[in-house]
Design goal:
This protein has 143 residues and is mainly alpha-helical. The chain has one domain: Ribosomal protein S7/S5 (Ribosomal Protein S7), CATH 1.10.455.10. Helices cover 59% and strands 11% of the residues. Helix 2 (24-42) crosses helix 3 (46-56). The protein starts with 8 loop residues before the first helix and ends in an 8-residue tail after the last helix. Keywords: Ribonucleoprotein, Ribosomal protein. It comes from Leucogyrophana mollusca. This is Ribosomal protein S7.
Length: 143
């Protein structure tokens, strides 16, 4: 198996998202072990699976609440690529807590594989946000 370079921006971002209390080396080991678990479960290169999962779970919009008169009105706003990746990683990490497995690495690997297969709660969260934004897209025209 080819180990991806440690300078990969996506792996660095995932490491930062997993980091707690400044323990970057521990988070880096967690990411490496997650990639090993992905490889062990799928017998395929792990980095393309990771990229595909993050792109699949990335929402295109989010809703912000604005005051319009005396009412709070949700307004859909398009996300930049960086914002989409952040939302995707957070959704995958939150969904991985409900997966089976003893370690964080194992749960995260199972969740990433589930996202690629299309059976993840992170994808359901993305659809929910997208549906809510589409219902409220008429509010985007209001000032």
């Amino acid at each position: 198996m080819l180990i991806p370079p440690a300078t990969d921006p996506l792996l660095q971002y995932l490491t930062s998202a997993l980091q707690h209390h400044g323990h970057r080396a521990k988070a880096s080991r967690t990411v490496s072990r997650t990639l090993l678990h992905i490889h062990a479960l799928t017998r395929a290169p792990p980095l393309p699976i990771l990229r595909e999962a993050i792109l699949a779970a990335a929402p295109a919009v989010r809703c912000m609440t604005h005051k319009h008169g005396s009412k709070n009105v949700p307004k859909p706003i398009a996300l930049s690529e960086k914002q989409r990746v952040r939302a995707s990683v957070q959704a995958i990490l939150n969904a991985s807590t409900s997966k089976s497995g003893k370690t964080v690495e194992e749960r995260l690997a199972r969740e990433l594989i589930a996202v690629v297969q299309g059976s993840s709660s992170a994808l359901e969260a993305k659809e929910k946000v997208h549906r809510f934004a589409m219902v409220n897209r008429g509010n985007a025209l209001m000032r």
